[in-house]
From TrEMBL:
It comes from the Eukaryota. InterPro entries: Alpha-catenin/vinculin-like_sf (IPR036723), CTNNAL1 (IPR030045), Vinculin/catenin (IPR006077). Keywords: Cytoplasm. It is found in: Cytoplasm. Residues 192-213 are annotated as: Disordered. This is Uncharacterized protein.
Length: 213
């Protein structure tokens, strides 16, 4: 999982000029979450109990679902191409892994052996989801650079403090998240055709009342 986390961080760094967009912010947040889960398996980090681990995994799945929504909006701006097809193929896998992770987190356990097996299953599914998210971020970066797609807008931030479980967003903070706005750069837009005299006539609302007198 640490390797996937490092790959995610490296990919996010490629987005320096898009540093304020939702995809980068969510990728970095999810990277921090997965790293905390990795540290837990080593007996280190802010997650101290299995309850902390499962809570973190649940927030991780929530962030992945939000990432799915953000990238889906981004994909509308990507022209039909092989790159867009690759992006959509990865994108459709995210909800499946999110649902599977959420099911594992909520599954009841009794006894140490069952809890150990649940921890192992949650970590494994988180790795699989993290792997798809890393691929998704790469695919988004490829599309954004090739088709010169700009981003405007950002999400509500969250600064983690030492010992905090990253991802504990309040409902009020979540409700203040602004919507993402993606757009093509001017160089990629279609030129606006000048209006014909007939179009100008219709835009003006036709003849004025005085002309009919």
């Amino acid at each position: 999982m640490k390797l996937l986390t490092d790959e995610m961080e490296a990919e996010a760094e490629n987005w320096d000029k898009y540093a304020e967009n939702d995809i980068v912010k969510r990728a970095k947040t999810m990277s921090a979450m997965s790293y905390n889960m990795y540290l837990f398996t080593k007996g280190d980090g802010p997650l101290k109990t299995t309850h902390d681990l499962f809570t973190q995994a649940e927030f991780f799945a929530e962030q992945a679902n939000k990432m799915h929504k953000t990238v889906k909006e981004f994909a509308f701006e990507v022209p039909g191409s092989a790159e867009k097809n690759d992006l959509l193929q990865i994108l459709e896998k995210i909800p499946v892994h999110c649902q599977q992770l959420q099911v594992l987190v909520k599954s009841p356990t009794v006894g140490k052996t069952a809890t150990f097996n649940k921890v192992d299953a949650v970590i494994s599914e988180t790795k699989r989801l993290m792997n798809e998210i890393a691929k998704l971020v790469t695919a988004c970066f490829v599309c954004a650079t090739k088709f010169e797609i700009e981003f405007r807008g950002n999400i509500g931030g969250h600064t983690a403090v030492e010992g905090d479980i990253i991802g504990e967003y309040s409902s009020q903070r979540a409700s203040r998240e602004s919507s993402a706005v993606w757009r093509r750069t001017p160089s990629m837009r279609r030129a606006i055709q000048p209006q014909t005299q007939h179009q100008q006539y219709l835009t003006a609302g036709g003849p004025s009342s005085s002309e009919g007198l």
